[in-house]
Design goal:
Blueprint lengths: L2 H22 L13 H10 L17 H13 L25
Length: about 100
């Protein structure tokens, strides 16, 4: 290569490098970032039966107050004593239902 061709290649290479570097700063790749999650928010909104349900402190329609109170009392009393221990030694002992060895 001659001296003139080498300088042209270097000159054009330098310009190419400048142009490619400038295009990297030209646009913002995350310009649509505020839209992320919009589909999830839309799906939750579409599946909500009554959006104002939490604003009112009303029982569900058809609910009986006495039945609801006994249900809550039964639920709260279920934590008074720990559950009975389960004996795991008897699992699989007994009948030969489904055993491959017989």
């Amino acid at each position: 290569m001659s001296k003139m061709n080498t300088s042209k290649v270097t000159h054009w290479g330098a310009w190419l490098l400048v142009i490619l570097s400038a295009t990297g700063c030209a646009n913002t790749p995350y310009a649509d970032a505020p839209q992320w999650g919009q589909s999830v928010r839309h799906a939750v909104k579409a599946q909500t039966l009554n959006p104002q349900a939490g604003q009112k402190n009303m029982p569900p329609p058809g609910a009986d107050g006495v039945a609801m109170k006994s249900t809550i009392d039964r639920y709260q009393s279920s934590f008074d004593k720990p559950p009975a221990p389960v004996n795991v030694m008897n699992i699989g002992v007994g009948g030969a239902v489904g055993s491959a060895g017989r």
